[in-house]
Structure to design on (165 residues):
């Protein structure tokens, strides 16, 4: 048997063995920490399951291993991703109202410093001047309420939003 035949046999047996699948699964799970996208983890789960099934002798041929890897990974990806995304990424998205509230801006009373022209003006909050926007006509000296923000621009209204904390 030549060198090429030995290489093919060793590579083929490694690719066909449970160690490859278990190492691949661990590598994919670890890669999720460095390149988060909540995708690699599900392919890692697929590789680990195939590795365990191969270890226990449930599946043997490379074709069946590849088929099982693909099916298990896709089922995990589409079946579990929706449920696991928040847990894997954290609950950061969609928290704008809570984030604003934690800074103490929502429902704070402001004094309008300049007349709003085309929905843009200046307000004073806690002694500081802020750029503000509003869909309502606000005049200098009036009182308004913070109902949101976009970056460092406050969204204000003549009426306090009772639905906010």
């Amino acid at each position: 048997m030549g060198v090429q035949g030995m290489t093919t046999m060793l590579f083929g047996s490694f690719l066909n063995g449970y160690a490859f699948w278990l190492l691949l699964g661990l590598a994919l799970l670890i890669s999720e920490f460095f390149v988060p996208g909540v995708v690699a983890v599900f392919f890692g789960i697929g590789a680990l399951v195939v590795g365990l099934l191969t270890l226990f002798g449930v599946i043997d041929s490379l074709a069946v291993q590849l088929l099982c890897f693909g099916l298990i990974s896709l089922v995990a990806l589409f079946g579990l991703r929706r449920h696991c995304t928040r847990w894997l990424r954290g609950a950061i998205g969609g928290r704008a109202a809570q984030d604003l509230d934690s800074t103490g801006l929502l429902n704070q009373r402001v004094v309008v410093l300049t007349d709003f022209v085309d929905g843009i003006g200046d307000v004073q909050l806690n002694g500081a001047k802020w750029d503000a926007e509003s869909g309502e006509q606000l005049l200098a000296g009036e009182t308004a309420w913070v109902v949101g923000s976009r970056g460092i621009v406050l969204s204000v209204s003549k009426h306090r939003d009772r639905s906010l904390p």
